[in-house]
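Team,

Forwarding the record for the chain on the shared tracking sheet. I've put the sequence and predicted structure together so nobody has to dig through attachments.
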Amino acid sequence: MHPVLAKSAFICDMDGVIYHGNRLLPGVQRFVAWMQEQGRRYLFLTNSSERTPRELAQKLARLGVEVPPEHFHTSALATAAFLSSQAPGCSVYAIGEAGLINALYEAGITMNEVSPDYVVVGESPRYTYEALTKAIRLVNGGARLIGTNPDLTGPTESGLVPACGCLVAPIELATGCKAYYLGKPNPLMMRHALKRLGATREVSAIIGDRMDTDIIAGIESEIETVLVLTGVTRREDLARFPYRPGHVVSGIAELVEGL
């Protein structure tokens, strides 16, 4: 059994670790079944803000893995929690999908395209020149800029696609304002995850495919790290980083070998 499986709580990234787009990656069904059979605490923690926890649960179910919605936490939820604690009842101009919009509404945050307190940007295939222009004008008018996560790209079954960091960059360049990002590696995201799990960092491990978000988030939070090579980071990329993961595996399938 892989030594990291001695941990009692697991924080697991999704894109590039659990699936690529609509393709489940090898070993995932066995890993989830093992965590459930052994009574391990687990949370799927994704920087993507597009889907709600219920939608993520339904997606995994379509791929053959049954996981209740309460086992998911997204950068959209982290963003909504941050805004509601910083400025209760604030208003936002949001560029994003249902996962982000629902999280904001549920946190008591209203939509405002005229004079919002914040401009909030998440992933969206409907990101347009018109939306970009409006966001720039609102930030220049005094709205504060928030990004749900700093990822520049995300993996799919057909290759990399632009992620939130790419979509926020033009707004930053045009306004001279730097966004505040809520997703990994922001320590708030990791604290939310540990609270949701009811676990301490000592008994937890984070499994991810990105050195610049998942692995650095684990290192800075003093949580054991496992890098899988099924997503963005390749083995030859490791030499570029000044930090190292605790473990490197080819994928979840290697992690569960021998179970």
